[in-house]
């Protein structure tokens, strides 16, 4: 095939043979390619950088993108770089700014610049856990009502050590706090409902989010549940879901995460395991002009008391079970005089549960996976370090509160002062793609199956994704062509791959904007992590990403 030829052997006719490229365009593209090869042809990496930035556009057929990429790296070997960090841009990343300020203090006189010294910094985060995590908490403006006695204490009672011993905090309260980097007028949520794709996006300020969370928290307290009780959420991840999630945590209860796609038996299993005392759900889910029942599935699961949110209307469209409460009546349980009064969040011991998530259950009964009050800090730290999330960013990641990426999105955006972008509808079509454009998303998270759907329908055609600074991918193994296609939609911005686990609230292997990135590949252990290949006896044998 033409795209598997070396670049120097590609002719005008080869380019014209790509469906969608005219003879005139083929001649123009070949002329530009010849000019790039004349200047950079001896260096495949530099050749690709100039091709990706100065020749390829989202409008050109993907087959031509493939022709250029595979032709450029025809005989390069394994994992050629598809993106290189710019030295000046690297200094403006979260880690880059930290290193420019304190590089010599943290790493000694060997510090050069954020790119050259990145590996040294990663090793520093492992060997100097106390200092690293104190820095991260300062960068994210984390507020403890009682400061930890230390970062990590070795103790026989806690395998792997005890993190932040003695600390008390409320992670949801931290999401709503004012600090030097955030004001009440800051936009914290941008949303749109499926079907309203031509309407302006809806924006929510921090002040509006705080008021909504406080009102729901006060209303939850009227339900008569003991603090620490488990309260489930089974609904799409929209503004109400985010408000309810934060309200449950700020009020000192425990969120039980249930995906809205689950059948009644799967819902029932998770309610039973978590011993949930109440559940927030929705009457219907709207997708593609159709309504799919949700509340009825919750009833079939023999759920405890349900608070039922109407789907995009002011009144519920169905009759409620005895003892269940409509969203309207639930909110009216709080006196009007108290609705704008700040809710004083419950300060939790660091080991207290804030969220119960679950394994997938594909190989048996799902296993409960608790997040403590400290897990959100780990999730947000990955957002700060690997995903470079900060003030001014708009973060979108199609997901659900039933999976760890839901709470991770909330915490990594809000604890880093960024804006969450939530599309209430299917992420697989042009509606979501247009929302990414209109919301001016700067960091778009994906799972590869979604990218495959976009690629197969070309639903991003004609849209402007130039606001995206980088992508993040997790949840499945990605394919090289999927990643190449995705990067090409945003003028070859990098895809940061992350692999981790619900148990740790983040990643253990990832990419970085301070390192060259290859397609569908990792480039570093996560900050604070050491990775080893174990021998047959279970002992560490080979260190990954570090000199042996």
TrEMBL record:
<keyword id="KW-0587">Phenylpropanoid metabolism</keyword>
<keyword id="KW-0472">Membrane</keyword>
<dbReference type="InterPro" id="IPR000873">
    <property type="entry name" value="AMP-dep_synth/lig_dom"/>
</dbReference>
<protein>
    <submittedName>
        <fullName>Acyl-activating enzyme 17, peroxisomal</fullName>
    </submittedName>
</protein>
<feature type="domain" description="AMP-dependent synthetase/ligase">
    <location>
        <begin position="201"/>
        <end position="537"/>
    </location>
</feature>
<keyword id="KW-0812">Transmembrane</keyword>
<comment type="pathway">
    <text>Phytoalexin biosynthesis; 3,4',5-trihydroxystilbene biosynthesis; 3,4',5-trihydroxystilbene from trans-4-coumarate: step 1/2.</text>
</comment>
<keyword id="KW-1133">Transmembrane helix</keyword>
<dbReference type="InterPro" id="IPR020845">
    <property type="entry name" value="AMP-binding_CS"/>
</dbReference>
<dbReference type="GO" id="GO:0009698">
    <property type="term" value="P:phenylpropanoid metabolic process"/>
</dbReference>
<feature type="transmembrane region" description="Helical">
    <location>
        <begin position="242"/>
        <end position="263"/>
    </location>
</feature>
<dbReference type="InterPro" id="IPR042099">
    <property type="entry name" value="ANL_N_sf"/>
</dbReference>
<dbReference type="Pfam" id="PF00501">
    <property type="entry name" value="AMP-binding"/>
</dbReference>
